[in-house]
Structures are given as structure tokens and as C-alpha cells.
């Protein structure tokens, strides 16, 4: 029944167009946070691992083989072919780490027939792409004699559908198929997200127990109360916990971890911050950040303020969230103050408070400069179209720089390079 609920959930998501890329920016699967925060974060992290691999394969005149584990509609193929080679500048076209031509084989596997059919439709013009209905609980879907893959990829929590036994089997089989080296990308739901502190205390006794989850966020806010939303079990992971899990499996298969990186993605802007389904005290920060990015839309900046409620059993998480809260709110307040005093250029040029961390000081300087310059910009609404997007990017930079890979976020992105 639980697996049936998962299948029904994804079939319904495809049917309502949740996996179409033209959804509105204020809500839905492809909202502004997904486009400007989450996708960009994934690409930035993955570039560091994929660029050396691509260079080696090009020197060997060989293409890259990718298996996408829980591929959905094949969105991973789009992520991999849009990895930035270096930060963009003003006078040149952006360079990509790899293109479709660099991929000799992309094999997408997913348990949902509806998703697989959608993937076939979306990527019909890519001859190197194939999509197959497979259940990862049954192991790595490799045929006898099938060549190993260079990249075993996953995105947006797909591997959190696996229980520990199935996941251990999958990772072990990936390790057994490593020839020289392979990259493993595990995208999971973070255990300690502020979206579900109701689960934090339960994890002391048996963290491997699956917890109830839903994807109610894919529906428009005014329709969520009218639609029957499927709920299904999901495995939430902490960063240290998952790293131990992977390292022990790799060692048991005689495989070394040559390189690793674990990152928190969407700490304060996770999907369920808006729904409050698992935490009634969660502020709808994702909705507010979506609004910051929306053209010609002004945002109530007070909706961006975050008040953390400490957890009695997790002092290390309390310290992390307190620091992020203070930094985040300092930048929001600085923007509110700058907008209030936009006619006073002298005030906007004063130095930020000396007690703030350098990252916060730089953000305050930047937002004050944006407000100071905004009246001279030829824009329909300088606040909505210049100041607010700049604030969004500064808050994004705070999240990216302060994250510690704790699993204190909606998404835990873990990337490993395995080497024989």
C-alpha cells in the first residue's frame, strides 16, 4: 500500500503538470527558489566533481556514462548539461562543464511508469537517453555485461525513498561496479530541517525508521485543502550519519572515498516552510523569497524575518540555527532600514555595525548600494526589480556560505568520488 501511495503521488504530479518547466514562479515545483537557489546550488557543487571527470574522458576520447537513480522525468539530464565552468562575467558567454555530446549514455531509472513516460517525451530528441521502469529496492538495475557508469546520479530527495537495507545494497553494488573511479551523487531529505522538528527527537532511538512525508507543496496554495494528498514513508538523513553509512559500505567493498562533499540545500526556504504541514511555527520564507525574485512584485519584507525555536535535545543545531537566524535577520533589517532612508545617501554610505560577521557586513554594504543606485535605474519599479532580487541573492549567499552539511535543511546533497 505504501508503494502504491508513492506511485499515485507521482502519477498525479505528472497529470497536473507539476513536471512541466513553465510553472509559475511564486509556487509549484519549478518556483523561483527552485530555479535561482536550488538548481544553481546543485550545479555549483557538482561542477567541482564533474569537470575533472569530463577532462579525463575527453583526453581518452570517451563519453560519459550516467545512470540517474530515481530519475523522475529526467530533470537530472538538464542539470548535468548546464553545470557552470566558472562564474559568469559581463563580456563573455557562459561556459558549461559538459554538453549533451559529452554524454555517451544516460540511463534514467524510476519506479513510476508515469514519470518514465514523461521522461521519454521530454528527452525524445536525445538519442543517448533511455528511460526504464525499475524498483531500486531490488538493487542496481544493471544487465549482465552492461558497462559500468562514470556517474551514479540522483536529485531532489529521490534516494530517501529507500530504507537502509535497500540503500546499503544499492551503494554496495555501485561500489562493486567501480572500475577506476566513479562519482556517486546522493540527494536526500535532511533530518534536521526546520520544516519538521517534530521528527528530531524521534531520531535518538532509531534514526533509520522511515517517517511520514507528503508532496502537498506541488499543489496551488488555495487547492491544498481540497485535494487528497498521498502520504508515504521517507528516510531523513543527518550529514555525519550518512557519511558514516557510505564510508563503511565502501570500505567493505574495497573501495576508497577519494573525495567527498556534503552540503545543506534550502535551510530556511524548504518546500514545507510554506505548507507548515509538519511545523505550524515555520514562517513561510519560501513564499517570501519567491516574491523577491518575481518581476514587478513588491514583497512585505517583514515576512522574511526568521525566529528560531530551540530544540532541547540538539544544542549543536541550536547554535547553527541561531547564527544563521542572526545573520539572515541582520541583512533583512538592513534592507528595510535602507528603503526607509533611501533619500539620505549619507546614511546609506555609513559602515555596517562592526560586530557583524564579514559576510553580513558585505551583504549590508551591497544592499545599501543597491538602494542608493535604484532611483537612477530605468526600471518600472526599482524596488521590485532591482533591490528585492538583490536581497534574495544576498540571502542565498548567506545560506550557501553558512551551511555545514548537517542535514539541517530540506535537501542534503552528498557527492562522493569512489576509487578502486
From TrEMBL:
<keyword id="KW-0489">Methyltransferase</keyword>
<dbReference type="Pfam" id="PF13847">
    <property type="entry name" value="Methyltransf_31"/>
</dbReference>
<keyword id="KW-0808">Transferase</keyword>
<dbReference type="GO" id="GO:0008168">
    <property type="term" value="F:methyltransferase activity"/>
</dbReference>
<dbReference type="InterPro" id="IPR025714">
    <property type="entry name" value="Methyltranfer_dom"/>
</dbReference>
<protein>
    <submittedName>
        <fullName>Class I SAM-dependent methyltransferase</fullName>
    </submittedName>
</protein>
<dbReference type="InterPro" id="IPR029063">
    <property type="entry name" value="SAM-dependent_MTases_sf"/>
</dbReference>
<feature type="domain" description="Methyltransferase">
    <location>
        <begin position="61"/>
        <end position="186"/>
    </location>
</feature>
<dbReference type="GO" id="GO:0032259">
    <property type="term" value="P:methylation"/>
</dbReference>
